[in-house]
């Protein structure tokens, strides 16, 4: 079938996400326990993009999410786990999917996040002090969704991100660190959400980003590295936010993502014929949404949520 | 599993030192969205972990159970947190802890929790840890020379604890192993700009240009040295345009007619910054044109864009955009 774009196995992917993984020797499940909050976000957002969020029990999910919240206001990866900024964003995003941000004590969550900002404007992941521009994005994204950005020093936060900008136009995890598509997504999103995109050299970064596309049409995260479906999200979202998405070959990328599906059992993997997981399933589907694959909801490149969910937060007063 | 100590083969429920503890099962809720299935011994270890965690028991046996839990699942950040609390309470030997982390990292070199824990320990040990940290990251990088966590840790060690003396040599060695290693090129830039032993970017510029030109000639399709070359001039684009070595390496690569994409894009950038090309450049680009291209492009920059659109079809929209954006007076 020369030249025909393949099929997205929607039903199979839905079933994959909903499926109960009963096999006792499934080690993938075991290592997911402490980050189930992330897993819930990846799975549920995928279902929403596919128009199937109604297939889950909303009340059960929300009550489980709230069980993961601590005294401090932060959320853990699962019940009984310590709070961390990573899971706090996922919790906020999951609640946003169900239009249930109102179950939160917004100030309590916001204060937890704001309390993680450091003197130099950077953010720690939790009380143990790991610093990374990923956490800058997470703080800004969650506070923006909660409409409490005023609780942090935005100028300092922006300055810290800008200090992580490299000569190739990209961004790393800390000042001087190598440009990496995942970190670039975080920095560009954070700048977008704070009205600070003028700090980005869009032409230079756009070129670096479109150079991530390799012969197969797939995207990698750094020069001379292997491609991975998840970069369909990190690279593409970044390109969209700087208005340069047309610099990649979209058809070839769509074909690559579709080739990464497990067409029998559902789910999407990092590259063709590898094992699938929820993480890559989300990023593959979200990437296809960015590429305007038919039948998918539009997804916001900065908030990483369906556009209608974002609109509902900001436009429904 | 070679990490188990002698006498620890028995399950926790059968060890006398654990007989007073009631294990606590994981509360997954009635119908989990992301349901988890467990291996039996993992379940047991985690049940005992939860028991001491909820009781806040910061003892030696707690330390051991965190080690077992970590070996089974190094991503469980709550276990690492509690381990730090225990290490503090026991006033543990942190050099021993570095050895423990080393063992765990061998199987999990890309795990965030391990690297953060390593940093936490190194911070407490201070400059006592410098050579160990440089050795440790070197070891990890010998297995995967682009490990992002290892590089991040190494940069932190250099800036906080020192040890810059051999770093440029180390970058050189890595690039000899793999001239395409973008992480090593990034580290090279980090060293020449920040090392207290080297005098800074401008002082290093000439020798670095020589080095980079050599790397480009060896592998002109290598993205990193082209970007590095531009980076050596940072905000001083005029000096970059005026350096004869820069334009000359473009000409050399173009004349060889192989792997010319980055040479062409660099020439394009030079032209956009006012570079005045000699006839040699015009001839070299002419020689790369295919019959279907417009042979009468009087403007070299336009011709370069056309050739690039043909040679690098994946990015045809980018090259078309560059062509559209060309300033009127470009040669």
Automatic annotation (TrEMBL), chain A:
InterPro entries: PGGT1B-like (IPR045089), Prenyltrans (IPR001330), Ptb1 (IPR026873), Terpenoid_cyclase/PrenylTrfase (IPR008930). Residues 8-304 form the Prenyltransferase alpha-alpha toroid domain. Signal peptide: none annotated. GO terms for biological process: gametophyte development; root development. Its EC number is 2.5.1.60. It comes from the Eukaryota. Keywords: Metal-binding, Prenyltransferase, Repeat, Transferase, Zinc. Its cofactor is Zn(2+). GO terms for cellular component: Rab-protein geranylgeranyltransferase complex. It is an enzyme of class 2 (transferase). One of its GO terms (molecular function) is Rab geranylgeranyltransferase activity. It catalyses: geranylgeranyl diphosphate + L-cysteinyl-[protein] = S-geranylgeranyl-L-cysteinyl-[protein] + diphosphate. Binds 1 zinc ion per subunit. Catalyzes the transfer of a geranylgeranyl moiety from geranylgeranyl diphosphate to both cysteines of proteins with the C-terminal sequence -XXCC, -XCXC and -CCXX. Belongs to the protein prenyltransferase subunit beta family. Heterotrimer composed of the alpha subunit RGTA, the beta subunit RGTB and REP; within this trimer, RGTA and RGTB form the catalytic component, while REP mediates peptide substrate binding. This is Geranylgeranyl transferase type-2 subunit beta. It comes from Vitis vinifera. The lineage of its organism: Eukaryota, Viridiplantae, Streptophyta, Embryophyta, Tracheophyta.
TrEMBL record, chain B:
Residues 1-12 have a biased composition (Basic and acidic residues). Its cofactor is Mg(2+). One of its GO terms (cellular component) is protein farnesyltransferase complex. Its EC number is 2.5.1.58, 2.5.1.59. One of its GO terms (molecular function) is CAAX-protein geranylgeranyltransferase activity. It is an enzyme of class 2 (transferase). Keywords: Magnesium, Prenyltransferase, Repeat, Transferase. Residues 1-32 are annotated as: Disordered. It catalyses: L-cysteinyl-[protein] + (2E,6E)-farnesyl diphosphate = S-(2E,6E)-farnesyl-L-cysteinyl-[protein] + diphosphate; geranylgeranyl diphosphate + L-cysteinyl-[protein] = S-geranylgeranyl-L-cysteinyl-[protein] + diphosphate. Gene3D superfamilies: Protein prenylyltransferase. The keyword Lyase does not apply. InterPro entries: Prenyl_trans_a (IPR002088). GO terms for biological process: peptide pheromone maturation. It comes from the Eukaryota. PANTHER family: PROTEIN FARNESYLTRANSFERASE ALPHA SUBUNIT/RAB GERANYLGERANYL TRANSFERASE ALPHA SUBUNIT, PROTEIN FARNESYLTRANSFERASE_GERANYLGERANYLTRANSFERASE TYPE-1 SUBUNIT ALPHA. Essential subunit of both the farnesyltransferase and the geranylgeranyltransferase complex. Contributes to the transfer of a farnesyl or geranylgeranyl moiety from farnesyl or geranylgeranyl diphosphate to a cysteine at the fourth position from the C-terminus of several proteins having the C-terminal sequence Cys-aliphatic-aliphatic-X. Belongs to the protein prenyltransferase subunit alpha family. This is Protein farnesyltransferase/geranylgeranyltransferase type-1 subunit alpha. It comes from Vitis vinifera (Grape). The lineage of its organism: Eukaryota, Viridiplantae, Streptophyta, Embryophyta, Tracheophyta.
